[in-house]
Amino acid sequence: RRLNHVLLHDELATLRWPEMQILHFYSVIISCSLALTVGELGHFTVGELDHFTDGELDDECGVSFRQLRGLRRQELKAGSRALALQGGGMLSVAAFTGLTAALLNLTGQDTPTLNGTGLFDNIDFISSVSGGTWFAVEVIYSPKFLALLESMATSGDRAGDLFYESWMSRWLTVGQPGKNAWNAMLKAASKFFHANQFWQTFAEASNFYKQGGKWQDFVGTVLQTTAGIDRDMPLGSSVNAWSKGKAFLLDHSVVIGPGPKIDPTIWQRPFEALRYSVVSPANASVLPTYIPASFSVRLGAGLDAPAPVPYMSDQAAATMEFFSYTKTETFHRTKKATSSKIDPSFPALTQDVGRISIVDAASASSAAMGGFCLSVWLEKLNDLFEADLTPWVSSAPAGQAFSNAYSLVKAWSDPEELADAQVHGVIDGGYTDNTGIAHAIRAGADEVLVFSHDSTTSGGLEKLFSGGPESSQHSGFEFSYFQIFDESQEYITQQFGALQQLAIQADAGKTSGILSKVSVGTIAATTGGRGSQWLGIATGRRITLRVVNVASTLGIGFFADFL
């Protein structure tokens, strides 16, 4: 009766999450032309429908009820579990590869595999950020990388060597500077003074500029070289068996602006620049600098399967009405254009998500320097080196959202052309939530397995808890914080510090002095922080965080000695 009333009186906003799940299932049943009347159907709950055989239900319905049961299993999971993968560049890949291999090794099987052990069978969602996304796409889409991880699990005593030989060395070789006397001396000096990180950073920077300074090409080289993922491979491609059927969220941040001094800069050159802003309805909340969003895909469902999770929350989408573009020329002459109304469902990024390139989506999730577009001096530095560190996306359909936007930006397009395509920036998820937890909860998870690599909660966890600032600036970059939990930052600091610490072997070989701490434990939290509205998270939900934290002395990539 409750759901019938809602349907008749358009009161969807009053529904709680479990009711929304039942309503979704209910609407599917109605749409397949059941012979049962709505009144008769109202006597059954979702659980009671399981007592019917497929044949009995097929007799009442024009389509196979197996499809509906599959939908309920895949889409309507109250109390779902998620795996959240923290951002952190190369460090995330190294830490989570080693951690997953270790967990496989602990199963006791001689040759453990992810599929054979069922290690992640109870995981419904995978929510990843930045370097965590690099790890996720490789273990999901690459048989080559999965074979490496499983070989590390089988040969635990050689795991570090195997990772270096099959992953890190391949990556560093791609960026290897030319063979000349200066480079040879620099490499030799780095080794002599035990400062391999400087040589590695030189190699990483060389790789970036060899690719033309475009962030998508940099990420594409990482994924292709280390895991064999081709540049144009789409999110709807086939996947490794262990991940099939799970929902994968590639978390990122939509650049809204303005920054400390300017609106987001799409391009600039001497004496002219083109910037954009987001226009909100008159009664909308004040926009943050960034809005959290995620590309989501049902793994293994194919190119045409729609996104299982909305691109961003309804509340956030409702604050974005138009994009406005302004070109400033010499002597402050300006040209302006406004886009058509923004579709709050973002169809190019949801209906066509299976056709979006893995590399493009992972680039958005990991664009750590994408915030250059909001800083005057950083943007000028960016132009000086002719780099393109902010991924741009448009409303172009059929998986062309990124390539269409890039071609328009590269052509120094005028406001009218950019407005027609609704071009805007999408950057690292770490600008809004570096843990992946917020999006996992937004998707419906009440229990989250958290893979992290922090020495303290300041790496991301504490930003989700109440009491801290809503934004901050570091090294010219601005960050937005969305506090989704009722408990205080003092609470999470205490809880994180109380996690059980595992003993680390003294004779850890190459890892001696690098692996500093492994902590595990459970943290309970309640949704309700002031940032919840931007993620569409209802207040009062009890959330369980199962934390596995691997702390080390390594950094996220640059100036980190992975040798």
List the helices and strands and how they pair.
Blueprint: H1 2-9, H2 17-31, H3 38-41, H4 46-49, H5 54-60, H6 65-75, E1 80-85, H7 89-105, H8 114-117, E2 125-129, H9 131-141, H10 143-154, H11 159-174, H12 181-192, H13 196-210, H14 215-227, E3 247-255, E4 265-269, E5 272-279, E6 290-298, H15 314-317, E7 322-328, E8 334-338, H16 347-350, H17 358-366, H18 376-384, E9 392-393, H19 401-410, H20 415-421, E10 424-428, H21 437-442, E11 445-452, E12 465-466, E13 471-474, E14 477-480, E15 485-488, H22 489-497, E16 500-501, E17 515-526, E18 542-552
Parallel strand pairs: 1-2, 1-11, 2-3, 11-18, 12-15
Antiparallel strand pairs: 3-6, 3-10, 4-5, 5-7, 7-8, 9-10, 13-14, 16-17, 17-18
What is shown here, in short?
The protein has 563 residues and is an alpha/beta fold. The chain has helices spanning 2-9, 17-31, 38-41, 46-49, 54-60, 65-75, 89-105, 114-117, 131-141, 143-154, 159-174, 181-192, 196-210, 215-227, 314-317, 347-350, 358-366, 376-384, 401-410, 415-421, 437-442, 489-497, and strands at 80-85, 125-129, 247-255, 265-269, 272-279, 290-298, 322-328, 334-338, 392-393, 424-428, 445-452, 465-466, 471-474, 477-480, 485-488, 500-501, 515-526, 542-552.
